[in-house]
Amino acid sequence: MTIIETQHLSKRFGSFQAVDDLSFSIKAGDVYGFLGQNGAGKSTTMRMLLGLIRPDSGKIFIKGSLYTGKEAHLLSYIGAIIERPDMYGYLSGWDNLKIFARLSFRPIPDSRLYEILELVGLRGREQDKVRAYSQGMKQRLGIAIAMVHNPELLILDEPTNGLDPQGIAEMRQLIKTLSADYGKTILVSSHLLYEIEQVATRMIIIHKGKKIVEGSVSELLNPSETLIEINWNNSGEALQQLSASRWSQAIQSADTSRLLLKMHPDEVPQLNRLLVSTGADVLQIRSRHSLEDYFIQLTHDAADPHRAL
Question: rRNA-binding as a keyword (predicted)?
């Protein structure tokens, strides 16, 4: 089932084209990564999905129904944090949660709120004033607020912004838990590409408001096309033996200090044994086909179309 679909969505602010003919779909169960450089149109798109901004053209469908901004009942399927969540700092986390629960116009028992607090890791801190919360705690309370009405889709705009490494790891685990254990569909934008690579099942990359690519992470980051970079010391004999082996077709470039191959990561241990047996000193092996590499390549190609030819 498709939870959200956009068709040819566009939005302009004066002379600035924020979103340009953008079409994509989010299916039930997706952890959908929404990637783009600052100013690419991510937040504008999310605001249009929530009816906070009206598109100039294009259509938005929520669970198959056309959403024009007037169908408030369709938003009950969605919970969202856009940029940093706004909360009442002088009130406790519990009071904030109760206020937003009342705003949902649904009977939500306290037991449900305690369950959400437990899920986001704030149980026991709910009576503390929000102004005393760390940024990570505020982000988790924001997710709790977005979940009070038990939405099918969560929209999280840069949920790791301002977090330390521990907070980022906790947010990553929370997103995985919400997806795997609670069946939530999640749209998450982030400039931390490694984090998206860790949690997303599908993704879209946009550049200057336009879609560059959309698909499953496993398909877009095909492991058989992984670039393996090896830093080594060799006298030339190792490279000669490698060029005469079955690995010759995988070699992309090579010199006395660096070797680059396109291959499946599972084959790296066998290759390493061969290199060592030839007398080469292997100093470092690392994968270069990460989401960051892919993102940089695509956005560079989009900025300079002749580069991709």
Answer: no
